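Continuing from the previous page...

OK, I double-checked the sequence for Peptide deformylase against my notes and this is the correct one:
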Amino acid sequence: MAIREIRVVPDPVLRTPCDEIKEITPAVRRLVDDLLETVDDPGRAGLSANQIGVSLRAFSYNIDGKIGYILNPVIEETSGEQYGDEGCLSVPGLWYKTRRADYARVRGIDLDGKEVVLEGHGLMGRMLQHECDHLDGHVYLDRLEKEERRAALRYMRNR
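Thanks. Re-ran it with the corrected sequence; updated structure tokens here:
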């Protein structure tokens, strides 16, 4: 297990859709260990594999003291709406109000190939959508209103 370095925008791995995990190999098991160890830090709600440089569909989460992971997650359902502050480890120092569904349900598998369903409202719903966006090659800045997105990109260019 290792705490891995977080990739930051504009690293191209963050803009590349991740590949489905077709086989649970020792490398996939190590990836999950690293995701779990790296997300286990106060203030970290979720961490996708591409944020640590691995283009596979996997993420870990740390919500309300519960730490876990999911492989090959797919959003099955969303409902409602929330508009609140969102940040990202790959976009350090920036927090912007972001529109998301209030509720999200994601289906995937665990390391034994068994089905896993994660769901929740509020922060859990936001995290599920945020991490699935990462795995599809998107960062939360893509969801910002036009003017906020411009300001965020300007800030990132000038830091």
